[in-house]
């Protein structure tokens, strides 16, 4: 009798644990799928879209990014930061964990990473842009090289203030796709004029 109870107990434990094992496998499969999807996109990216390199020529990279954006009917997303920047790495981690956003981002923009660090501040290049107040900072340029946005990435955070918001990223990507350039350029010019009048520009 005791042996029968032990067998029944073993079967019950096995049945109860099976869904958990399956769930763990599903999570693992999902993670692997995300990594594979992102890797296929990343492998096709130019180097200036992948790394902050103090040795790179930002003017040449910008020229190449604008050319590619123009040819592919995208905008350029200029990300200012460096390997020293904790929040830059958090953006990379967020995009890695959200492959749908990662794909939409690269479908909409040519990403251009510009290094700003103690080793190389790229001051001459940065002089042509609105002032950066924190890092990472983002600009959006059209495929014709016209800046239409200067954005503090803190605006991408959720209400907790410690994590990036999916909704904020998706709204940003949708708003600043190339189809909306005319309206966004007009708004950017008006905002810039207003800042000058207020003494902020």
Structure write-up:
The protein has 201 residues and is an alpha+beta fold. The protein folds into two domains: 1-44; 47-197, 3-Layer(aba) Sandwich (Glutaredoxin), CATH 3.40.30.10. 55% of the residues lie in helices and 12% in strands. It contains seven helices and four strands; from the N terminus they run ααβααβαββαα. It has a four-stranded mixed beta sheet with strand order 2-1-3-4. A hairpin with a 5-residue loop joins strand 3 and strand 4. Helix 1 packs parallel to helix 4 (99-108) and helix 4 (99-108) runs parallel beside helix 6. Mean pLDDT is 87; it is low at 8-24.
| The number of domains | 2
In the predicted model, the low-confidence regions spanning at least 5 consecutive residues are 8-24
- Give the CATH superfamily of the largest domain: Glutaredoxin
- Output mean pLDDT: 87
* β-strand amount: 5-15%
Number of strands: 4
Q: What oligomeric state do the depicted chains represent? A: single chain
Gyration radius, rounded: 23 Å
Spatial order of the strands in the main sheet?
Answer: 2-1-3-4
Shape call: globular
Q: What's the helix count? A: 7
By secondary-structure content and strand pairing, the structural class works out as alpha+beta
């Amino acid at each position: 009798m005791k042996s029968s109870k032990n067998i029944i107990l073993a079967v019950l434990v096995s049945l109860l644990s099976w869904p958990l094992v399956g769930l763990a496998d599903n999570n693992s499969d999902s993670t692997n799928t995300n990594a594979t999807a992102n890797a296929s996109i990343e492998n096709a990216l130019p180097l200036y879209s992948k790394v902050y390199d103090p040795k790179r020529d930002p003017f040449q990279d910008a020229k190449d990014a604008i050319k590619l954006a123009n040819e592919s009917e995208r905008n350029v997303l200029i990300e200012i930061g460096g390997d020293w920047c904790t929040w830059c790495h958090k953006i990379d981690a967020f995009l890695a964990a959200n492959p749908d956003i990662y794909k939409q981002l690269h479908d909409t923009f040519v990403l251009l990473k510009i290094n700003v660090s103690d080793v190389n501040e790229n001051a001459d290049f940065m002089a042509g842009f609105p002032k950066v107040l924190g890092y990472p900072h983002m600009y959006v340029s059209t495929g014709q090289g016209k800046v239409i946005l200067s954005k503090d990435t803190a605006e991408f955070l959720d209400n907790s203030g410690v994590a990036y918001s999916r909704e904020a990223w998706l709204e940003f990507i949708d708003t600043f796709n190339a189809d909306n350039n005319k309206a966004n350029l007009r708004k950017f010019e008006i905002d810039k004029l207003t800042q000058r009048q207020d003494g902020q520009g």
